[in-house]
Amino acid sequence: MVVPDPHEVEPHLDQPEPLTLIDRLAKVLARSDADLSATETLTLEVDRHASLSTLLAEHDVLAREAQIDRWATLLDVAPFPENVADDVFTSPYYEHLESALARHEAAGHLAAVALTALAPRLTPGEDRADPAAQLASMLDQATQQLRPGKRTRARVAGLIPTPAEPIADDMQTALIERHALIEGAARQLLHDAQEAGAAWVARLGHPSSRPDARERWEAHAATVALYRYRYEINGTSPLGEAKAVTTADQAVERRAAQTALARARHIARPTYDEGRRTRAISIRGRELA
């Protein structure tokens, strides 16, 4: 287990974000009588089929809500220093901590193992940093420094991590519905970009004429398209500049998009010039043999 400096708190944790549509939707979904599989999930003034942005916001909320009890159980038994645990649960950064736990597990690691190693390193005392913010920062640093584990989970459209099971049936139904809609929308983003002759698509290579290879290429290319949409990437670079990444969630998803980009290029058939150059090299090699 990589153990980062417990006194370092990530800049993006400095200020809790104001209430947004996602926060308001979360309050609706958190009601004990919420019907998560029907239109009751959208009693706000938003049509859930109105846009991909709305679908992504709904998925983020549902995924977070699906894990709330599990995170609370893990944190309840974590070996915090004396008089720290209560401040973790009441911290305004508690949701940041939940997100950091989700990112750690999405990278294939056990949150319980990380908490056992990191929780004792929180610093008690009146002048300490916020403990939930501290722990979230430590978890993110550990996630970035560790190699991906073997327990990585499926991602929606190859990009967005799915929450760990078990998940309540009604919550699972709501998530699966959104998975299908998001994946369909990601494919449409790709097709629209292809029809428009977008330069970033050309950088992924040309899809093979073989149906199976073309399907795999399109799946990876759609992941890139969804990443561009989710983080408002413009320009010819498929994933934009790495220095433009502003949040831990985006950093994790950019790595997933990088994998998809590499796989799309690997599957893509060579261009005419590339194929001619490859044949020329092969012929030259035979002549020299």
Structural class: mainly alpha
Helix content: 55-70%
Beta content comes to: under 5%
Question: How would you spell out the order of helices and strands?
Answer: HHHHHHEEHHHHH
* Count of individual domains: 2
Strand order of the largest sheet: 1-2
Uncertain regions: pLDDT < 50 for 5+ in a row?
31-49, 271-281
Quantity of strands, as a count = 2
Kindly report the average pLDDT value.
82
Distance between the termini: 51 Å
Please describe the biggest sheet, giving its number of strands, its sense, and whether it closes into a barrel. Answer: 2 strands, antiparallel
Q: What is the count of helical runs?
A: 11
Compact description:
The protein contains 11 helices and 2 strands, in the order H-H-H-H-H-H-E-E-H-H-H-H-H.
